[in-house]
C-alpha cells in the first residue's frame, strides 16, 4: 500500500503469517487547489513488523523501529468510487533505526509512486519504485517492499518494483441490521519484481487480490478482508494469503 494501515496482517499457506503495526505523527502542509492535492509532510514514525514461519525456522524475524520521513505528493482528487487517484505522483524519503544489537545503524529508504488512469471505470494503475539501504539483513516485507509472498533470506540493499491495477467490482451498500455494512467489493491485479543492488538475482510475483470493505456494529473504522492468489515465476509455484486490515485516518 502507498499509505500504510495502522494494522495489516496476512496469513500464508501453510502455517506462516506476517504482521505490521505502524504509528505515525506528521505535520501536513497543504497547498491544494482546484482538482489537485498538493502536500508536503514531515513526520515521525514508530513501527513493528514480524514474519513467523514456525518455531524452528531461521526466517523468523521481528523488528521494532523508529525514524523520520519526508513525503510530498501531487495527485488528482478522487471521486467517491475511485480506488486510487487517476493522475499523480508521491515521493517519500525515510531514515530509521531498529532496536536490536544486530540491527543498529543508519537505515534509509526512498519510494516513488506514480498513478495513471485505467481502462475500466474508476480503475487506476499504480507503479511503485522503492530503494532501501540497510545496515542489516532484513527479511520483513513491510520494511523492504519485497515482491508479495516472497521472503528473501539476505536483503540489505535492494530495489523493488510493484505494479498494481485496481478496480471496483461492485458497491452492494448492503446492511444486515446494525451488525454489518458492506460498502465495496474490489479487485487488484499485480506484478512485483525485486533484486539486490549488488547481486542481480530477481524475485518475481504475479497475482490478484479479491477484497471487501465493510463496517461492523456501526463502528466508524473501515475494515478490509479478502484473499490473495499468487504465482511465482522463479519456482513455478502457486501461493495464497488471507488478507485482513483496518486503517484510521
Mind explaining what this structure looks like?
The chain is mainly β. 2% of the residues lie in helices and 62% in strands. The protein has one helix spanning 141-144; strands spanning 7-12, 16-26, 29-30, 36-52, 61-76, 88-98, 107-117, 124-133, 157-170, 174-176, 180-196, 203-216, 222-232, 237-247.
Radius of gyration equals 18 Å
Please give the largest β-sheet.
Answer: 12 strands, antiparallel, barrel
Give helix and strand order, one letter per element, not per position. Answer: EEEEEEEEHEEEEEE
Report mean pLDDT, rounded to a whole number.
82
Strand order of the largest sheet: 1-2-4-5-6-7-8-9-11-12-13-14
Which structural class should the secondary elements be placed in?
Answer: mainly beta
Determine the N-to-C terminus distance.
14 Å
The low-confidence parts are 1-14
Number of helical segments? 1
* Helicity, as a percent range: under 10%
CA-based shape: globular
Number of strands: 14
Q: Percent of residues in beta strands?
A: over 45%
Characteristics:
single chain; 249 residues; mainly beta; twelve-stranded antiparallel beta barrel; 1 helix; globular; disordered N terminus
Helices and strands in order, then pairings?
Elements: E1 7-12, E2 16-26, E3 29-30, E4 36-52, E5 61-76, E6 88-98, E7 107-117, E8 124-133, H1 141-144, E9 157-170, E10 174-176, E11 180-196, E12 203-216, E13 222-232, E14 237-247
Antiparallel strand pairs: 1-2, 1-14, 2-4, 3-4, 4-5, 5-6, 6-7, 7-8, 8-9, 9-11, 10-11, 11-12, 12-13, 13-14
Short description:
It is built from one helix and 14 strands.
Amino acid at each position: 500500500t502507498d499509505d500504510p494501515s495502522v494494522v495489516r496482517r496476512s496469513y500464508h499457506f501453510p502455517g506462516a503469517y506476517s504482521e505490521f503495526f505502524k504509528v505515525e505523527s506528521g505535520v501536513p502542509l497543504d497547498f491544494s487547489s482546484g482538482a489537485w492535492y498538493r502536500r508536503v509532510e514531515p513526520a515521525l514514525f514508530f513501527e513493528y513488523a514480524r514474519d513467523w514461519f514456525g518455531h524452528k525456522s531461521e526466517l523468523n524475524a521481528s523488528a521494532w523501529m523508529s525514524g523520520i520521513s519526508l513525503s510530498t505528493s501531487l495527485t488528482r482528487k478522487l471521486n467517491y468510487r475511485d480506488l486510487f487517484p487517476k493522475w499523480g505522483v508521491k515521493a517519500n524519503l525515510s531514515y530509521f533505526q531498529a532496536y536490536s544489537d544486530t540491527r543498529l545503524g543508519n537505515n534509509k529508504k526512498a519510494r516513488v509512486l506514480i498513478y495513471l488512469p485505467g481502462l475500466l471505470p474508476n480503475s487506476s494503475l499504480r507503479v511503485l519504485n522503492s530503494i532501501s539501504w540497510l545496515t542489516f539483513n532484513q527479511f520483513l516485507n513491510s520494511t523492504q517492499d519485497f515482491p508479495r509472498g516472497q521472503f528473501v533470506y539476505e536483503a540489505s540493499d535492494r530495489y523493488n518494483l510493484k505494479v498494481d491495477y485496481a478496480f471496483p467490482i461492485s458497491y452492494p451498500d448492503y446492511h444486515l441490521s446494525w451488525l454489518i455494512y458492506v460498502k465495496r467489493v474490489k479487485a487488484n491485479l499485480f506484478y512485483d519484481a525485486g533484486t539486490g543492488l549488488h547481486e542481480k538475482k530477481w524475485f518475481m510475483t504475479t497475482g490478484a487480490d479479491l477484497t471487501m470493505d465493510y463496517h461492523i456494529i456501526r463502528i466508524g473504522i473501515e475494515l478490509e478482508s479478502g484473499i490473495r492468489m499468487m504465482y511465482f515465476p522463479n519456482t513455478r509455484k502457486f501461493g495464497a494469503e488471507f488478507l485482513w486490515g483496518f486503517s484510521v485516518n
